[in-house]
Amino acid sequence: MEVVAQKISKKSLFTLLFIGFTAGLSIFAIICGIAAFFGAETIQWNGVHRTGVEGLLYGFIMGPFLGLLFACFMWLFITPGLWVYSFFRPIRVTFKHCQNEQSDLV
User: Fold this and answer.
1) What is the b/e burial string over 54-83, where b = at least 16 CB atoms within 10 angstroms of the residue's CB?
2) In 24-33, which positions are buried (b, 16+ CB within 10 angstroms) versus exposed (e)?
3) Taking the CA of residue 73 as centre, how many other CA atoms within 13 Å lie in the half-sphere pointing to its CB?
4) Three state DSSP letters for 40-94
5) pLDDT on residue 28
6) How far apart are CA 92 and CA 6, in angstroms?
């Protein structure tokens, strides 16, 4: 299913960025936290390497924190770019496996 729109809402764009960055970075941060739990210096906060249980806890905290930070930063650049693009062309978004689509199987 393809949707063609003149503009995308800023809230929808931020939601997509936040979910994408938070999910991806949380997985990476948890893996780094597990490594820090076993003594690797993979978690650093304020210039200090965190290891052990403290490193594991910081790994769980860093994923959502960095996801929010990256989403905000990228949103600031993508929003004006899409705004300028919308003056010239409509935005096309293609979806796969939509919930409101009826399947061919009966």
Assistant:
1) bbbebbeebbbebbeebbeebbeebeeeee
2) ebbeebeebb
3) 7
4) CCCEEECCEEECHHHHHHHHHHHHHHHHHHHHHHHHHHHHHHHHHHHCCCCEEEE
5) 93
6) 9
Residue with tokens 């010239």: 88
Q: How far is CA 15 from the centre of its chain?
A: 8
Token duo for residue 62? 């860093």
Please compute the mean of the pLDDT values over residues 61-68 and round it to a whole number: 92
27 near 21, Cβ under 8 Å? no
The letter for the amino acid at 9 is S
